[in-house]
Design a protein that fits this description.
Elements lengths: L2 H15 L2 H23 L11 H32 L2 H6 L4 H27 L10 H25 L3 H17 L12 H7 L3 H14 L6 H25 L6
Helix pairs in contact: 1-5, 2-3, 2-5, 3-5, 3-6, 3-7, 3-9, 5-6, 5-10, 6-9, 6-10, 9-10
């Protein structure tokens, strides 16, 4: 672990923590509002899993959705800000390998995602009791899901040249995929076409596996979910490292 990696990692963690009211509290509040609205409207009409109340079912999905979106926001916003302000040159001139850059940005995004996800669950734990989670499955899917979106955020931050492009990436790719990942429903309740479409979405496996950690029930085997989510994470990590090594849109 190089000193450069540690310095960049701490910079990225402090960057979001210094404005935690915006980067942590706001996403937690948004997730709680989703929980209140959807549980009020559907709790008496929907039973996604036998013996699991809809509000209980909804909470892990909302926590994972918040984790995914914030992992993406952390890496993508940091890179686009550095590019627009021009201080990315100081990061590139530092004695950092592409692996150091990737690991520092990625792990900081995972930290933010876990803080937000824990905040969502703890904020309403006294209202919505959840079974004691399986810590190994919980950690596996929390890291893998946040890692997928952290890597995707680095790719988006490298590719985008202005905030409008980054917003389009988030609005037309990240947000639809997170909302259609089974956060609000069990995919088994969908028509065959939409079930098949959901199984192409790697975000679905992160949500489904994370929910399994609490209830021991899922739409797909957790081993299958972990394998597919890990494959998506590895593929995005490989692409991200290729872009960083090439200096794509970073070195002019």
């Amino acid at each position: 672990m190089s000193p450069g990696f540690r310095a960049l990692f701490m910079k990225e963690v402090l960057r979001f923590w210094k404005v935690s009211f915006q980067t942590v509290a706001a996403p937690v509040l948004s997730a709680i509002l989703f929980l209140v609205i959807f549980s009020h409207a559907l709790a008496s009409h929907v039973e996604a899993y036998p013996g699991v109340g809809y509000t209980q079912f909804l909470l892990p999905g909302l926590a994972m959705m918040a984790m995914l979106q914030n992992a993406f926001a952390n890496t993508s916003s940091s890179l686009i800000q550095s590019k627009i302000t021009g201080n990315v040159v100081f990061i590139l001139l530092a004695p950092l390998t592409p692996g150091d850059l990737f690991a520092a940005y990625l792990l900081a995004s995972v930290v933010r995602a876990i803080v937000v996800g824990a905040g969502v669950i703890l904020a309403v734990a006294w209202l919505v009791p959840l079974p004691l989670p399986n810590p190994l499955w919980l950690a596996a899917f929390a890291f893998t899901g946040a890692g997928i979106l952290g890597a995707l955020g680095i790719i988006a931050g490298i590719w985008a040249e202005k905030f409008d492009q980054l917003a389009a990436f988030q609005n037309f790719l990240v947000m639809p995929l997170t909302f259609l990942a089974g956060v609000f429903y069990s995919v088994d309740s969908l028509p065959p076409f939409w079930q098949a479409a959901s199984h192409v979405n790697p975000f679905f496996y992160a949500v489904d596996g994370f929910r399994y950690a609490f209830f021991g029930i899922s739409d797909v085997s957790p081993w299958t979910s972990l394998a597919i989510a890990s494959a998506a994470f590895c593929a995005l990590s490989w692409l991200t490292l290729r872009l960083l090594r090439a200096g794509y849109k970073l070195r002019h």
